[in-house]
Structure formats: C-alpha cells, structure tokens
Amino acid sequence: MNKVIIVGGGAAGMMAAISASKEGKKVCILEKNEKLGKKLFITGKGRCNITNACPADEFLTHVVTNPRFLYSTFSQFNNEDMMDYLEEIGLPIKTERGQRVFPQSDRSSDVIDALKKQCKKGGVQIYYHTEVKELLFDEEKENCVGVLLSDGKKMIGDSVILACGGFSYASTGSNGAGYTLAKQAGHKIKSIEPSLVPFEMKETWCKDLMGLTLKNIGVRIKAKKKTVYEGFGEFLFTHFGVSGPLVLTASTCLGKYQKELEAGELKLILDLKASLTPEQLDKRFLREFDTYRNKNISNVMERLLPKKMIPVFLEEAQIPEDKKIRDISKKERIINFLAKQKDRHYIKRNEKKSFCKEQEIKTYENRKSTYFSFYFDFLSGIMPGNAHSYDHRLQQFDLLCAERNTKFSCIAYERSCGED
Known about the structure:
With 420 residues, this protein is of the alpha+beta class. 25% of the residues lie in helices and 27% in strands. It has 13 helices and 24 strands. The strands form 7 sheets. It has a 6-stranded antiparallel beta barrel. It has a 5-stranded parallel sheet with strand order 7-2-1-11-20, with helices on both faces. Strands 3-6-5 form a 3-stranded antiparallel sheet. A hairpin with a 6-residue loop joins strand 8 and strand 9 (144-149). It is elongated and about 85 Å long. Residues 349-368, 374-380 and 383-420 have low confidence and may be disordered.
C-alpha cells in the first residue's frame, strides 16, 4: 500500500486525503495548527460560503485571472459536483441570494466535521501541531520520498501533496511557507500580488469615516491616464482606507500595476452621485440652494450626503461648515464643491493578503511523487449578485478534485475570508 503525506489540513488537504484514501492509499495529514480547517472556519462570518450555484460554464466567466487553468479540472469535477458530494456525505446545503451556497445549519464547523468524518472513514491519520520544514528527495533528486519536520523528525512516504496554503491569512496558517516547499520541488514562484483585498489610502481622513457604507456609487481606478477598473455598487470606509464589494472586486484587476502602486500613481476616483451627470448634479445643488439659501451649508448637505461625511466633505471642499448658502459663489459651487462629488484619491500598497501565480495546470506535478493542491492561490474571482454590486466573491472553499492517470490530486482555490 502506497503511503501519501499531505501537508496541510485545510479544505484542500482534507479533500485530497479523502480522494487518496478511496484509491486505497495509506494517508496522513500533517497540520501545524491545533485543528483542521482553521481558515475554512471563519469564512462567511462563520457560516462558510461553500461555492456558487450558477451553471459551471458561467462560473468560470467570473474568474478574473487565469480562468483557463480550471477548464480541464472543471470538466471532471465542478461546483455542481461539489454540492452533490456534500449532500451525499450528509451535509444539507442551501442556496441564497446571488446563488451563494451555504450549509443549512449556517455553521462552518458542520462543513469541517463532514469532511473530517470522511477522512476518518478512509482511515486517514491526522497529526496536529506538526510543521513541515522541508521536502526530502532521493539521491538523484528526482523523487520526493518524504518530509522533514520542524522538530527534526522525518516522515517517509511514496508521495507528498502540498496543501499548506498561500499567503492569504497568516494567523490561520497560510503564511507563505508553502512557497518555500514548492521551490524545493523545482517550481518557480512569480511575484506575489494582492487580490481581493481592501485598499490603504494616502488620505488620512478615511479613518474619520470608518464604518460608513455608501451604496450605488461609482468607482474608477486610473494608472496615469489609463482607466484600469470601473464599477458601480457598494463601498465602505475603514480605519486605514476603503473596502467593500467594489474595492475587493477592483483589487483583482491591479496585479499588473504593482509598480504604479508602489510609486503612488494609482488613483481611485469616487463618484458619489454616479447616476447624475455633472450638469444634473449642479441643477440639484441650485435647487437646494435656492430653497434653503439662508441656512448653513452643513445643514443643507444633510439632504445630499450621509451626515458623517459632511464635515470631511466640506473640509476637502474648503468651505466652512457655518457658511450660509447665499454666500457660496459659483466658483465654490463648481470648482470646490461639485468637483468633490466626483473626486479622486491615491491608493497605497496593501499587503494584508497576497497570492502567488503559478505557471499552468500541467506543472502541478513537478517532481515525481510530489503534487500540489493549489491553495497557493493564482486565481481571482467574483460572482454575480446584484447587477450593480458585485457583493458576492468567490471564497476559499470552492473545491475541485481531479484524477489523472489513476493518480490523484486536489486543486482548490481560495479567496479572502469575506463577510458574505
């Protein structure tokens, strides 16, 4: 009986273990945390957004980067197969708004328990608090024969599957250590690029608006004169910058603009009244100004903007809060005021969650007996919900299993641990 060592006990590691045990292999999972599925546990606010129930061919259209990687895998095991599998092993699921799929219990722990039970059923041995330091190869450096643990012990096996995560959430174990192991197996790792992440802004006033959510607004991101992203939907201010569905979606398009990001040349243009043209917006101002000409500008702005935003907005527009409407000049209205409704801000680099790009699907078995579960994420995706608000993102638990030449492998792709 061949022995298979799986490095990492997340969703991909457990699925790989289940698949291997069905092939009659002797399987063990090496997990450095105190439990399996630590990142899986926090997805969807603890509810676990398993996958999206849209047709498989549509599913791939929402993978922003490198969707071709999934074609062959999806032809063998897709999102629909994943849902069927979970039902078969006794985990009832449900589909909610935007075709998002959750366990009926709304508990991510139930998903973990279901997979863990299948591992136990297949005789999979699980070692907790066990960290892999390096891969071991034979004298010819051709075959992987096991792993060296951080405590100096060696574990010998016939094949090794790396399912130890990318660099997406260090506190859950995905701290980038998997890249080091991949390099040992001969893989070339490209530069790590953030994806599905919030933006850190140069403007310090964002923290004054922390927690404020804006709906139905427009966002454009420009690299010098080129528009690299444009969207419409929901937007959130944070203590360090901005986030929300629009921003997370926009971040998937910025991988190739790292130099501009480092140089502070990326601009985020926020259109607070995206449904109005500048001319229409000016008419709206004039109507409000004529009606309330003897009131302070701060009071009138409550009819146009969220109350929390007004002090910041007026400071940026260089208009005192106690200034009367009748005293506001046309120049202030057009240059200082109207323009600020459709303003631009500068994005700083944010490295809170980052991912790796691998070469192509045919490289995931690099050395004989060494396999990769692509939790080393090289894909970014969004899923359709509201036509104007991409508030459903692909999350980490979209699992895709593939069999090839009677050997097994598991391909998974993870996402930011989002709120939806």
